[in-house]
Amino acid sequence: MTERDKVIKRGFDFTVALCGLLVLWPVIAVTWVLARRDTGASGFFVQERIGQHGQPFRVVKLRTMRNVGGTTVTTANDARITPLGAKLRRYKLDELPQLWNVLKGEMSFVGPRPDVAGYMDLLPEEDRVLLSLRPGITGPATLKYRREEEVLAQQDDPQAYNDTVIWPDKVRINREYLANWSLATDLRLIKETILK
Fold first, then answer.
1. Which element (helix H / strand E) includes 97?
2. Running DSSP on this structure, what letter comes out for residue 12?
3. Would you say 69 and 79 are in contact if contact means Cβ atoms under 8 Å apart?
4. 105 Cβ partners below 8 Å, 6+ apart?
5. Cβ atoms of residues 81 and 88 within 8 Å
6. Taking a C-beta distance cutoff of 8 angstroms, is the pair 112, 120 a contact?
7. What would the pLDDT profile of 64-106 be if each residue is shown by its tens digit?
8. What pLDDT score was predicted for residue 72?
């Protein structure tokens, strides 16, 4: 990805995130109130993730789970997910507050999903090129694994399956995305995300 490509991508992200927040703030506000009532905690879930160049940042989502401890790997039948939370996750409404992260330049609309520490920050040297990208709300790996929680629910050891099968495949897919980036590709992936 050239410097010109990065400017185009960032300009697109900023413009669309600003417009999205102006249009969708009532939806975010209503779902925040509902999530707060449903979980008995703050309607927003804020968590440190690894961002561009390996720098940590705080991602913002709508809270969909009860505030209890556990693994960072979530399965479809995870007892921590509330009934409302399951609906918010199904329709990806829990992701809407990330428009703020995109506006601030911490995220992009398309890119690798932002992970907790222990994944992107520990990539081997040949894969660290992915850290040049801002994490994305969606991306090619996100679309392939849009039913990831259901797949993990079928495994005897979801954490091990994630770490040895899904994560390496996501790295491969995201490297292909970076090597072949174009604005047209981003637009196609955003369209696919909305349709699916």
1. none
2. H
3. no
4. 10, 13, 14, 134
5. no
6. yes
7. 887 655 656 666 567 788 888 889 888 889 999 999 999 999 9
8. 63
- Asked if residue 61 lies in contact with residue 19, where contact means CB atoms within 8 angstroms, the answer is no
> 77 phi and psi, to 5 degrees?
-100, 25
Provide the number of structural domains found in the chain. Answer: 1
Question: What span, in angstroms and rounded, lies between the C-alpha atoms of 105 and 112?
Answer: 15
Q: Which two tokens stand for residue 7?
A: 């400017």
Say which residue the tokens 């955003």 belong to: 190
Residue range(s) defining the domain that contains residue 39 = 3-195
Burial class of residue 23, CB neighbours in 10 A (0-12, 13-18, 19+): exposed
**Token pair in block for residue 90:** 């199904």
Whole-model pTM above 0.85? Answer: yes
Q: Which residues make Cβ contacts (< 8 Å) with residue 45, sequence separation at least 6?
A: 60, 61, 62, 63, 64, 65, 94
pLDDT attached to residue 70: 60
CA distance 98 to 108: 9
Amino acid at position 173, single letter: I
